[in-house]
Design brief:
Structural class of chain B: alpha/beta
Number of strands of chain B: 15
CATH superfamily of the largest domain in chain B: Nucleotide-binding domain of ferredoxin-NADP reductase (FNR) module
Order of helices and strands of chain A: EHEEHEEEHHEHEEHEHHEEHHH
Number of helices of chain B: 6
Distance between the termini of chain B: 36 Å
Low-confidence stretches of chain B: none
Oligomer: heterodimer
Strand content of chain A: 15-25%
Number of domains of chain A: 2
Number of helices of chain A: 11
CATH class of the largest domain in chain B: Alpha Beta
Largest sheet of chain A: 8 strands, mixed
Mean pLDDT of chain B: 92
Strand content of chain B: 25-35%
Distance between the termini of chain A: 56 Å
CATH architecture of the largest domain in chain B: 3-Layer(aba) Sandwich
CATH topology of the largest domain in chain B: Rossmann fold
Radius of gyration of chain A: 22 Å
Strand order of the largest sheet of chain B: 10-9-8-7-11-12-15
């Protein structure tokens, strides 16, 4: 059901939502950018629609709402372990189509790859999604080529237009709420982009043989293995276990899982000093193939959703999309049919 | 809500068997089905977790052979009989005895690589009638690095055993040389039918599997076990992924036809 509300009316809906939910959306972090006097767009809790940044891409994704950067799995004393309580409140998350597709990637990893992850599941069950339609694409986006430019599995969509906030609601529980605050009903279809300036081509011939290509050497020196690409990626899911103990009582502490990056040192270290993929080029290869090759082999869809945040954040200006576009040539190089 | 996937349980150390200065077997209280080659996440709260493969099973216990190489294992070595460790698992596929029953069997292990396959050797050493013959080649760096020395006596009575060390200073009861040099000399009844298990450091596995192919073993009759960093054990943390394979879920035991294609 479609509605058009003014911002005051939307905020009335928010007031209602806030009774049992926390609302998360991209917000402006003044002076929060990588360089001095630059801003950043992060996810945060919001009270009103005016706080939401609709006209920029968020630098970080919604991911930390479902996968906290550091998540306590349990508390321990010397001889007992105790799990933390579940969160009480629901969450409503504003996101774009690419990110909504990324949720499917997270679900695949945490609900279907091996045993169901109880910590993910209990957060996931509490989340509803509000789609922010894209009237235009942003710099470095390539969602159309990844097939993630359109979504229809949202609970509601919201977009700012001259005549108000256009809403398409698919959640029956919210219809009464929207209708009560509504100035007018209308048919609403969320905007989506049909073309992006950045385009990618993932060759059908792609195989693990591409690891032998010389294209990766370029990244050996250029990449500084900082791992920022992993942390802004809405589909990167890796973590490392970490025990901490309290300084006031060294016998009491907690086990956490914290985000991990396949680009950084130590990711593959095994007991006794063994490790795999020492150079940054091969780490880049491992990451790129996971995003556009082997994840699909296992799960049927590409992991990468084409948001382009890794391109935006890289301090060495390494372009992920450019890297994908080199794969075809690299395959020709390793299979020897250059002609 | 059930958090058993990450919540460890407390397990008593029933016995500590000292093999070398830095390698002990901890016999841990455990009731339940476990296969050789599976692994447990072993932890001491505040020091962390480490994946450790099962080196033996009994009705009420599992053996975990641990090398003192890091923070977690260093702390584990401070524990004695009667103390306890925290465990979760078992994880991974492990070796399925059914795949080896009725075959002429060759097991080649390097160093602590003997741990995951030891349960298979133990089983057949007391069920030799279920094989068409069995040979074990176990290699260690020096005589003082030899693991399970007391078991070798028992194994030698049941099967052909070659115990070898890379180098030794003095006269020693075992042979000297890399495991690979014994491969061409093996007196196998039927190389085309022989089933082999190879476990050890990556370079050792690479040269050993090549050696076996060279003497005529079939690729599909070789099994290997991979060691990777397995933080979660349940296909989530991503550290052990190789191509589209999660070593913790799909392995660590692989038929060589699959395992050889796993390039990090």
């Amino acid at each position: 059901m479609g509605y058009i509300l003014n911002t005051k009316e939307v905020n009335e809906v928010f007031q209602n939502w806030k009774k049992d939910s926390v609302i998360y959306a991209p917000i402006l972090m003044k002076n929060g950018g990588a360089f001095s006097d630059t801003d950043s767009v992060h996810y945060g809790k919001i009270q009103s629609i005016d706080e939401i940044v609709f006209d920029q891409k968020s630098d970080f994704s919604f991911k930390e709402i479902l996968l906290p950067i550091s998540e306590t799995l349990f508390y321990f004393t010397e001889d007992s372990v105790k799990e933390p309580e579940s969160p009480v409140k629901q969450a409503i998350v504003f996101l774009r189509s690419c990110d909504l597709h990324a949720v499917k990637r997270l679900d695949t990893m945490y609900l279907h790859n091996g045993a169901e992850d109880p910590y993910y599941k209990r957060l996931r069950e509490r989340v509803k999604f509000v789609l922010m339609g894209c009237k235009d694409s942003f710099e470095s986006c390539f969602c159309v080529d990844m097939g993630t430019n359109r979504s229809d599995d949202y609970h509601a969509s919201m977009e700012l237009w001259e005549d108000g906030v256009r809403i398409d609601n698919k959640n029956p529980e919210w219809d009464e709420l929207f209708a009560a605050s509504c100035t007018k009903q209308a048919d609403v279809t969320p905007s989506y982009v049909t073309g992006t300036e950045t385009q990618v081509n993932i060759p059908d011939s792609l195989s693990l043989d591409v690891m032998k290509s010389s294209m990766w050497k370029h990244y050996d020196s250029r990449c500084i293995n900082c791992g920022r690409c992993n942390f802004v990626c809405p589909t990167c899911t890796c973590f490392t276990m970490q025990d901490i103990f309290y300084t006031d009582n060294g016998k009491v502490g907690e086990r956490r899982r914290v985000w991990a990056s396949c680009m950084t040192d130590g990711f593959t270290d095994v007991a006794g000093g063994g490790s795999y993929r020492q150079n940054n080029g091969q780490r880049m290869r491992f990451k790129v193939l996971h995003k556009v090759y082997d994840y699909k082999k296992r799960n049927g869809i590409h992991m990468c959703v084409g948001c382009g945040r890794c391109d935006d954040v890289c301090p060495e200006y390494i372009s992920f999309s450019h890297c994908i576009n080199q794969l075809e040539g690299a395959m020709k190089e390793v299979t020897g049919n250059e002609s | 809500m059930n958090h058993k996937e990450y919540l460890p349980f407390r397990s008593e150390i029933k016995e500590v068997i000292r093999h070398t200065d830095i390698e002990y077997t901890f016999r841990m209280a455990y009731h339940g089905d476990v296969k050789p080659g599976q692994f447990f996440e072993v932890s001491i709260p505040k020091f962390g977790e480490a994946p450790i493969s099962v080196s033996g099973t009994r009705e009420d216990s599992v053996d975990l052979t641990i090398r003192r190489v890091g923070k977690v294992t260093g702390e584990i070595f401070e524990r004695y009989q009667g103390d306890s460790l925290f465990l979760r698992g078992p994880y991974g596929n492990g070796f399925d005895i059914e795949n080896f029953r009725g075959k002429e069997l060759l097991v080649i292990a390097g160093g602590t690589g003997l741990s995951p396959v030891k349960g298979v050797v133990d089983y057949f050493s007391s069920h030799m009638e279920e094989t068409k013959g069995m040979t074990l080649i176990a290699g260690f760096k020096t005589p003082k690095d030899i693991l399970f020395l007391e078991d070798f006596g028992k194994w030698k009575q049941a099967m052909e055993v070659i115990l070898t060390v890379d180098c030794a200073d003095d006269d020693t009861a075992c042979q000297i040389g890399l495991v690979t040099q014994y491969i061409p000399k093996l007196k196998l009844k039927n190389k085309e039918e022989t089933t082999a298990i190879v476990v050890g450091p990556p370079a050792m596995m690479r040269f050993t599997t090549q050696g076996l192919l060279d003497i005529g073993l079939k690729e599909e009759n070789i099994w290997i076990s991979h060691e990777r960093k397995m933080c979660c054990g349940i296909g989530k943390c991503g550290h052990c992924k190789i191509d589209d394979t999660y070593v913790c879920l799909d392995g660590p035991v692989f038929p060589f036809t699959k395992g050889r294609k796993l390039l990090d």
